[in-house]
Amino acid sequence: MTVTVKISEPKGQLLELLDKIEAGEDIIIARGDVPIARLSQIPQRSAVAELIRTIKSQRDLRSATSRDEIKTWRNEGRP
Known about the structure:
By secondary structure, the protein is an alpha+beta fold. It has helices spanning 10-22, 47-61, 67-75, and strands at 2-6, 26-31, 34-39. The chain has one domain (1-79): YefM-like fold, CATH 3.40.1620.
């Protein structure tokens, strides 16, 4: 659901408007009858994005892999 408010209204209703936004409503701010801005909820981080962030932070803590290590891993199990 979308709620439209006049530009002078949000000044005294910020907490109430934020509660509505958290409940999933979009707020349109209008100057007169002309819409000029939209306030909406920020999408939550997805599980995939959080996993990527975790992997990157763990990767930064590890030392660089050498060519010899890579060659050893590649050749594991080969005759």
